[in-house]
Design brief:
The chain has about 240 residues and is α+β, with helices and mostly antiparallel strands. The protein has 5 helices and 7 strands. It has a 5-stranded mixed beta sheet. A two-stranded antiparallel sheet has the order 1-3. Helix 1 packs antiparallel against helix 2, helix 3 crosses helix 4 and helix 4 runs antiparallel to helix 5. The two termini are about 35 Å apart.
């Protein structure tokens, strides 16, 4: 009972911190929107590419703010085009990492295949895994996202037919994870980075397993060759 009470208190603290972060981001975000509008109306800067890029970064901050504000709330899941949503999720990151990192999306599914997801939270998971992959490759290598079908088996003790599922395999050519560390990567606070809180993958698993009723796990990893994370989602 004490352990449960302590976890509940920790969850309330994290939710409070997340919502306060979203609130604090609001003021500078509003200021940036104002500066963008000023530059857009300026004769000197209105045609400069920096104005468009500033707009993309503002949009990004708005998405991040929404993510923080939604923590602790029940997310709304909708049927979304999986291929297009995945492509959108990596587009921003792809343009802001080293050009020596190559992103590829492959699919064994029809391009209009849906998945039941919350887009801001799904984006968060994909970006987090890809950012970790970029770090593991020291800014040089390839990241492949492959969409595929998942065979679902009906258990004899369940009356309902299992929902069809799809998977996304995210594979990098990085350092790999030692076998005895595979489960640790999802433990809150575990990190191999000099800068980092070790919360990214823990939150990613919670988003997929708890909110999306799917699964997130390490499908394959070999030291010196790379790692594959698999996301399983309901359709």
């Amino acid at each position: 009972a004490f352990s449960y009470s302590r976890r509940a208190e920790q969850n309330r603290v994290w939710v409070g911190l997340a919502k306060e972060t979203a609130h604090q981001l609001g003021t500078p975000l509003s200021s940036l929107v104002g500066w963008q509008e000023y530059l857009r109306q300026s004769e000197r800067f209105h045609d400069e590419p920096i104005v468009e890029e500033l707009g993309k970064d503002i949009k990004r901050l708005e998405i991040i703010t929404e993510r923080f504000s939604n923590i602790g709330s029940v997310p709304v899941l909708k049927a979304e085009n999986l291929y297009q949503t995945t492509r959108n999720a990596i587009a921003y990151l792809e343009s802001r990492v080293s050009r020596k990192v190559k992103f590829t999306i492959e699919t064994d599914l029809p391009l209009d295949t849906p998945a039941c997801i919350n887009v801001p939270l799904f984006d968060w998971v994909v970006e987090n895994i890809c950012k970790n992959a970029v770090d593991a490759m020291d800014g040089r290598g390839s990241i492949t996202l492959r969409l595929r079908a998942v065979k679902t088996r009906r258990q004899w003790w369940r009356r309902r037919t299992p929902r069809p599922q799809v998977a996304i395999d995210i594979t990098d050519t990085g350092k790999g994870i030692p076998r005895n560390k595979l489960e640790n990567v999802f433990t809150p606070g575990y990190t191999t980075k000099k800068r980092g809180w070790g919360l990214g993958l823990a939150l990613a698993r919670r988003i997929i397993d708890n909110y999306h009723e799917g699964r997130l796990f390490v499908k394959w990893s070999e030291v010196g060759k790379g790692t594959t994370f698999r996301l399983i989602l309901n359709q």
